[in-house]
Amino acid sequence: MAIDVENLPSKTEERPIGFGRLKRKEDARFIRGKGTYLDDIRLPGMVYGALLRSPYAHARIVSIDTSKALAHPNVAAVVTAKDLETLGLAWMPTISYDTQAVLAGDKVRFQGQEVAFVIATDEYSANDALQLIDVEYEPLPAIVNARKALDPDAPLIRDDKTGQRDNLASPTWEAGDQAATDRVFAEADTIVSRDIIYPRCHPAPLETCGIIADFNPETGQLDIYNGNQAPHAHRTVYAHVAGLAEHMIRIRCSDIGGGFGNKVPVYPGYVCAIAGSIVAGVPVKWVENRTENLVSTGFARDYIMRGEICSKGGKITGLRVDVLADHGAFDSTAQPTKFPAGFFHIVCGSYDLEASHVQVKAVYTNKAPGGVAYRCSFRITEAVYLVERMVDALALEMGVDPIELRMRSFIGPEQFPYETTTGWTYDSGNYAETMRVAMDIAGYEDLRREQAEKRARGELMGIGVTFFTEGVGAGPRKHMDILGLAMNDGADLRVHPSGKAVVSISAQTQGQGHETTFAQIVAEELGIPPEDVEVRHGDTDKSPYGLGTYGSRSTPVSGAAVAVVSRKVRDKARLIAATMLETRPEDLAWEKGRWYVKGDPEKGALIEEIAARAYSGEAMPAELEGGLDAQVIYDPPNLTYPYGAYIAVVDIDRDTGHVTVRRFIAVDDCGVRINPMIVDGQIHGGLAEGVGIALMELISFDAEGNCLNSSFMDYLIPTALECPDFELGETVTPCPHHPLGAKGVGESPNVGSPPAIVNAVIDALYETHGVDHIDMPCTPARVWAAMQGRAEPPQ
Amino acid sequence: MQTPAAFEYERATSVEGALASLQRLGPEARVIAGGHSLLPMMKLRLANPAHLIDINDLKELSYIREEGGELRIGALTRHVDLLKSELLFRHAPLFRDAEQVIADPVVRNRGTIGGSLCQADAAEDLSAVCSAIKAKAVIRGAGGERVVAMHDFHVGPYMTAVGGGELLTEVRVPLRPYGGSAHEKVERRAGDWAIAAASVAVWMEGSRIAEAGIALSAVGLTTIHLSRAEELLRGKAPSDELFTEAGAIASADCSPSADGRGPVDYKRHLAGVLTKRALLRATARALHQEV
Amino acid sequence: MDVSIAINGEQVSREVEPRQLLVHFIRETPGLTGTHWGCDTSNCGACVVLMDGAPVKSCTILAAMCEGHEIRTVESLEVDGRLDPVQMGFHERHALQCGFCTPGMLMTARALLDENPDPTEHEIRTAISGAICRCTGYKNIVSAVRWAAEYEAAAKQGV
């Protein structure tokens, strides 16, 4: 395809005012290398922090000698728990109502735990100073295997908590109906059970976590620069922890080099930097290195699950799941308060079950804290992995094609809104249609033929299917809060006299394209071109309160807020237009960008004319104030429920066990798409992460609790050579309760892809090698072991 | 980012100068070429030399040429040049096989053959390549030059025959007619170290294998030289059964350790599979039968 | 020690420790924070710049080693307000999301097209296999590089 350089598409193609494929506004700075990421920021007088971390997974701290470090000419201070205790900062609250040590005082409880904080004139000196701190440890036995955490002789990890007598982090939480489920299983034709593990992995965004804390002792103002996904929530936490008034703290989010849930928690390094700045009165920068990121920041998953599934009359009828969750040494999982297992109980899946029952309990282990991260939609990645693996296991047992079993068991389109057996109300869906689109794109029948031919030649090829429904956009204030804060998001829209606008939002982009998509929402509702809509975010002084971006909240919550606030502005504009046009508001009709008189379309007022009028001295409707702006806090009535059908095609080298993902077909239904280009990009990225999780990503430990994957040499992330050319399709089933009919999509690809790939691996190996289960990651060694009949869960 | 400890730095302007500095500064001095083995170790504080001698200006050590019945490769030759060299590919295609899977293309712009061989990690692909192709290492010191067979070059894990005050300057690959070679590797992901790799060179006499060189990466404390398998192949006609038997020797004669890349039995299995694959490909190349 | 490096055609001279890495030397030069870092072990490629025209990982090179060599960073791609075709391609094809890997990818793409003006998909994927992207899944990056290749081919024909 020859390119006409004089008439580039960007110059001549239609630039949608509203929804559509619009190239991103934020690209301008990033393609020039002019983004401002945290480590790019330098403030006058700034000093550098570095954290000394524990080499032991579990040990008593006997002594800390900081004298040699303090003697280093470039070192300004060395902070330990003792120092923080005087400020009341040695421990901090976590999002799960637990506490976490900022710096270890009595004991270290995971390898990599923070022990001392050095402040020096430059990064190199700070790193040098770490080598000069002498810590004497008394190692203790470590709990590395979650299954052993509740053994009677297990060492007590959280002896800091009054009344804690064992390593239970979160007591058993249940959903569904146990008695009804037992009855359904008793009447079933076929029952299958599996032990299924979702191993510990890590979001590992390309930019690590960091902060600049700048406390001004004269004004008492604390300025924070930080890449984090929930700036307002962080500010509330810091106000609480540091004893400062909220309005005296300003958080400005830098450009964020990827979040994926890694930048949701408050980390000890942040608190240390803040403490350092408060005490020293100069800006303190702390940026973690990659090892620190992998061993100490919020990991993802680590669910040990036992699933049982049953069918009757050829349809899936019941599901039972028992989960042991490994939360690490401190419970810092992030999820709404009433849902300690997040949204795991959506494990009932996309099927019209008669009954289901779920129970989840969580334990402490001597590992890094975390669990809810990496595009998990609050544990929906774990849930969908479980149910989609179980459905395939059931199909194997029943001798039925995995797509056929799903089609028979799907919730039908006429059943929406659908109340699941665990209390969710799915909003809308036409699952069979989406599944068929995926089959068409994949050429499913052809693939099965090809597989048969290859099998006859001794070649291993697998086709894996997943159909997922997930719930995003948390959430209604009557059900959902985090640390007592409602999960609502705000939007402020101000149209200036020129007719151009600024919309301020609570969401916080980490690459999702908010500066473009939110401008498109305003454009769609008001007809102001996106290039004339400035999207403001990330500055707590300038954006409305909200809980930020994770759990795919941006479109369902902030997007809804922006739509609603735009409509408020539009309604106000109508009243002003009526005065301008000397008619009644009910006589006006709207076309994008303009109110016009119903009977006399030539007679109208453009939005920019209305804006000019709103600020002018001319007559306004009696009941209205001047200006053209509005504010909204949006309380979503429900989650939204995007869904999708994914098909993976893998080839396995028979002699080496090496798995290649040859094709990956993803058909997502996320309702109305604001910018299809951005939606597709989000899906590509999540699918690549799924390839990583399914084939190579793993955070593992040896028996002493040493982390074995503490750098990118051993925490493997897929390159362009491991990712296929993703094939995407779409169906669009609008969300009935969202103002735009949009559902959000950011996490769906992570939710749906790992089970599709694992199902494909098993599909390749079942007939020839009898493999009916394998746990991730499907590395060559682990696949080969499965082929020898020696599959084992990962360590 | 993790950063190295402090050190003194100088740039060598000649080989003699580099050698003199090494002599003068003693064991606390390390030579740095591409730096992609040494600098990461220094950042992690696993290596803390007090002095670095930068030899990147010694262009006279970067070449691939035919001389005296051998291919001579300067120690400072970068991986990317080994990959691209048609001369090398023509005579010893296993170099290109290996280079395509050594690290990644960006690292290959800096890393050198000398650096890889002297790093002497058991998983270094080029160590197996040079062993299989029966290369020799030229080591220069104050006392002059000596030539060491590859089998004697790799002494142990991270240990080579290069002594204090010495530099590896050249690798010499013997040119023999009717040869074919191949390198086969399995890795968890592009750019990763080998779980196992096999390098094979064969030289034919008519329809029989006159001589073979077989070496394995990543399945022992150092490069594994499969002399028993070479012995088996001498004088024999290539066949699937023969190569399977060679593979069995490879499995038996290596000594892998379990780690994140795989357990012992899998690595032994791979050693056998990859030896056989490399033998098949090397022989096909020798007989000009490669598809 | 005094180190003087040609960066984007200009001599940048500073007194630094021998251990200062090139990536830090670059980032401490005013206006040159476009080169990023993302790991400790030379794996991620966020730090890729061109050294004498070839992509290298600037986190694994000492600044001192770069005297006498030409370093080019992402900031050199735009000239007199005109974007390089690789920059245009990344924008056209939505080949960036968070933008953190983008400078390294752009420089790798620029070097690839300088050497191979008509790369296949596989050649592109191989060329960028030394860099990690967590956001895009690589599909649009491949597409962007093809776009730039075609743009440059068409521009050449037009001359």
Secondary-structure topology with pairs:
The complex is a heterotrimer of chains A (795), B (291) and C (159).
Chain A (H helix, E strand, L loop, with lengths): L8 H4 L14 H4 L16 E7 L5 E7 L1 H5 L3 E5 L1 H7 L3 E3 L5 E3 L5 E2 L5 E7 L2 H8 L3 E6 L28 E9 L1 H9 L3 E12 L8 E7 L4 E6 L4 H12 L6 E4 L15 H13 L3 E4 L2 H7 L2 E14 L2 E12 L28 E9 L6 E2 L8 H19 L3 H8 L8 E2 L5 E2 L4 H12 L1 H13 L3 E10 L11 E2 L2 E2 L2 E7 L5 E5 L8 H13 L6 E4 L17 H27 L7 E4 L2 E4 L2 E7 H9 L12 E7 L8 E10 L6 E11 L6 H20 L31 E4 L17 H22 L10 H8 L8
Parallel strand pairs in A: 1-14, 12-13, 15-18, 16-17, 25-26, 32-33
Antiparallel strand pairs in A: 1-7, 2-6, 2-8, 3-7, 4-5, 9-17, 10-15, 11-12, 11-14, 15-16, 19-20, 21-31, 22-23, 24-25, 24-30, 27-28, 28-29, 31-32
Helix pairs in contact in A: 10-18, 12-13, 14-15, 15-16, 17-18
Chain B lengths: L7 E4 L3 H11 L3 E4 L5 H6 L7 E4 L9 E4 L2 E5 L4 H6 L1 H6 L2 H6 L13 H7 L5 H8 L3 E6 L2 E6 H4 E3 L2 E2 L6 E8 L4 E8 L9 E10 L2 E10 L6 E2 L1 H7 L6 H14 L10 H23 L5
Chain C lengths: L1 E6 L2 E6 L6 H6 L20 E4 L2 E4 L12 E3 L12 H8 L9 H14 L5 H7 L11 H20 L1
Parallel strand pairs in C: 1-5
Antiparallel strand pairs in C: 1-2, 3-4, 3-5
Total individual domains of chain A: 3
Q: What would you call the shape of chain A?
A: globular
Strand neighbour order, sheet with most strands of chain A:
3-7-1-14-11-12-13
What is the H level of CATH, i.e. the homologous superfamily of the largest domain in chain A?
A: Aldehyde oxidase/xanthine dehydrogenase, molybdopterin binding domain
Q: pLDDT under 50 segments of chain C (min length 5)?
A: none
What name does CATH use for the topology of the largest domain in chain C? Ubiquitin-like (UB roll)
Straight-line distance between termini of chain C: 48 Å
Question: Largest beta sheet of chain C, briefly?
Answer: 5 strands, mixed
Give the low-confidence spans of chain A.
Answer: none
Extended strand count of chain A:
33
Looking at the structure, the CATH topology of the largest domain in chain A is Aldehyde Oxidoreductase, domain 4
